[in-house]
């Protein structure tokens, strides 16, 4: 009885009793969710256009952030370092297409998946070799991101919203909007979607596979840089950031591997729910740190009811 | 010449499907076993036991378990590390609860615990497929490692949160713990590995193995010809997790000597997956070849700069190591996506033909 009470009644009583704290938790969850959604978006783009499950997306975030900070440390002004980092990401995209993807066209999915894990290891070693393994500070102020915080006093309580988090949310919304416009309106964007629908048909109307793959990996690189800046501003830049890539996986499952919308909604849902669970159930009942697995278990339960995720394409199987 | 099959006639269907249809294969296996059981233990140094031989055997065993699930039954799993952890913690609990129990029995029992957990996490595979399933196995990975950390009962509430292997004797000889001699441990592991491999070869050749392969190639078609998918998938999860659990118990008790929860984290899972894939999915031999490569590569890379007289800091070596392992994986996948086992097959076919071109 005591246990049931602490599971089903007390958390909600706590929420009602301190609505300002609940708002704060929701905001924190939302910001985390936006970042998960961004990483998941990088996955979805690559999966849609090439059916590659790109495990390296997480390390690309770290690599982009490290390159940016590293370039700045070499004395390059911050606003110049950003385009230079983008150039590095473009070179990376071209190299990956040339060296890894092109020879592996038409191999089974699992082989390509393993190859992206190989890329992950390579980039970890390469990044540490060049930039060192220690934790670095993101150049938040140099990039012109405000660092103060707003405070509100709703319900007679106290809620604080950091300006860099707000910038992150706005930046993410702008980025996603731009991406959607690009995918739906531009010629290249349509080519990407065509390739996602049917490889052979797309090739036969003259869409270049290798160009599109480079483009898609480059866009994933841009998203990685944006995520890296925002997450780095919150937690510092180090290879520990890699773990957030794992967080994007349940987001993908929840949203469906092919759905841009699913990635966004899944990211927000998981960001908010895991924070709520951690604060109201995890810490009082299970000794905390439930964030490492909650998203996976939640996605697993949803998948049991919808095996293709919430927004994924319906899986049709024929013999 | 060496592999000439001329003159080896098969007069019955049974003989054609024997374990070694070509006599030379049996000879080769015999030579390898003599090497493993007699020559290597006599010549190897203590360092090579601990850094090469024992880990190769244990990793190969874990990869064998994963290969049964992924290579034979077609269910991709990313949670191998956690299931090794289940085996290790179960063995620790059994050993500390019944100190007089024979360690072989304890390890065999801990495999069953791991198998039960594996079946529980395998249940979603009945509905979820492909990459979606792979990510659900990550749920097992993260949840179990969290559990190892938070559930004090598992490590007997020790203050460090780690499990320590006590000195364990079997028939008067210390086989595990700080006092055990590497040679004894090597023989122990080798014995277990030989036994499990023999079991795995036969189970994958038989009715169950064919059932798994049918499910791997296309599960709907398999269902239509009358294979019970639930039985096939769950039995694959059970057998695979059993072997992985035994490997986990050996990993801690016969090699590491102590373990913290994060030892079983995702890098371990990936390492085992690399071995299975580089070795070759759907092959038993491949696990051993893959394990040799993945275990030996860092050791070789670590000693190489010193031998060549190039002064490099150890941190740099570490980073280069990770980088080269990553590059090697990509290289192997590009050169031969079906793994090292396929290389051996090609060589063997060439040898049978040799010296004639056709």
TrEMBL record, chain A:
InterPro entries for this protein: ABC_transp_permease (IPR001851), BCAA_transport_permease (IPR052157)
Q: Name one GO biological process term.
A: amino acid transport
Membrane-spanning ranges: 21-46, 52-71, 78-98, 110-131, 166-183, 203-231, 251-273, 293-311
GO function term, MF aspect, one: transmembrane transporter activity
Report which superkingdom the organism of origin falls in. Answer: Bacteria
Q: Which Pfam families match?
A: BPD_transp_2
The record's subcellular locations are:
Cell membrane
- What are the protein's UniProt keywords? Amino-acid transport, Cell membrane, Membrane, Transmembrane, Transmembrane helix, Transport
Q: How does it sit in the membrane?
A: Multi-pass membrane protein
Q: Name one GO cellular component term.
A: plasma membrane
Q: Which family does it belong to?
A: Belongs to the binding-protein-dependent transport system permease family. LivHM subfamily.
Q: What is the official name of this protein in its record?
A: Branched-chain amino acid ABC transporter permease
UniProtKB/TrEMBL annotation, chain B:
Q: Where in the cell is it found?
A: Cell membrane
Q: How does it sit in the membrane?
A: Multi-pass membrane protein
User: What are the alphabetically sorted keywords of the record?
Assistant: Cell membrane, Membrane, Transmembrane, Transmembrane helix
Record's Pfam families? BPD_transp_2 (PF02653)
Q: Which GO terms describe its molecular function?
A: branched-chain amino acid transmembrane transporter activity
Q: What is its main location?
A: membrane
Quote the cellular component terms of the Gene Ontology held in the record: plasma membrane
Q: What is this protein called?
A: Branched-chain amino acid ABC transporter permease
